């Protein structure tokens, strides 16, 4: 008498799918979202609209690239929106009032962003302030300085800054800047020693210190990079508006944090990818663009964005629980 043997599935296929979704959930979500919006409104997948989405995403994405460094290292930066406004205003003031050449005014704006980031980093690294408090203080300082410099009025930018809002060979310059900034950020995180140190500090700061990593230097570096990217985002925003606005960038820090988290980074530190951050920024831009095409109120748009952020953070919490077990 023979007994039939049945082969049970090993579950490898399911595990591979689960692993793919865990690593690329944001990208899958972006594709599904685009398909749904195309069905809802055929105007969504037109060439002009897709370029418009790229331009809309550029400022938040660049801010979020800088934020990725900070979150990977286990911190948070609430000042990036205000720093972006300050950098753009210093650039415009340098050109309009101080008589600097246009290219030098761009350098002044970027340097302003890097300097404010370095100050926040030193407050965290050497002053032992929590990053939340240090950058919250910088948010207020940077916004106040922006209003002081501008006297509460817009200032026209140099042509070199306005160029950042133009188009080259049919491609908007903000999209080109976005791609270059993302590539540089990815190279820093994945191909440099300091990038690996950021992951180590965010994963376990005490273990990183015991292994010989200069934690304070890493912290100053990540906040300086965040400030530099905020300065670049400010240049992009001023280029699109052809002027530096004293209230520019208000609330952008929340979108930047949301983009990083939606992209798969962990607020606990040690986890994050620039590619995921880019997808997160695109998701936010696609949602806003799609809702605008469907004539949904901007008030409800904020509700939708809030729900998306809550879901992304909830997924992060569940993922960390599963990792522990």
Automatic annotation (TrEMBL):
In the UniProt record, the signal sequence range is none
Question: Topology relative to the membrane, per the entry?
Answer: Multi-pass membrane protein
The organism's superkingdom is given as Bacteria
* UniProt keyword annotations, A-Z: Cell inner membrane, Cell membrane, Membrane, Transmembrane, Transmembrane helix, Transport
Q: Where in the cell is it found?
A: Cell membrane
Kindly give the InterPro entries that the UniProt entry links to this protein.
Answer: ABC_transp_permease
Q: What is the name of the protein in this document? A: Ribose ABC transporter permease
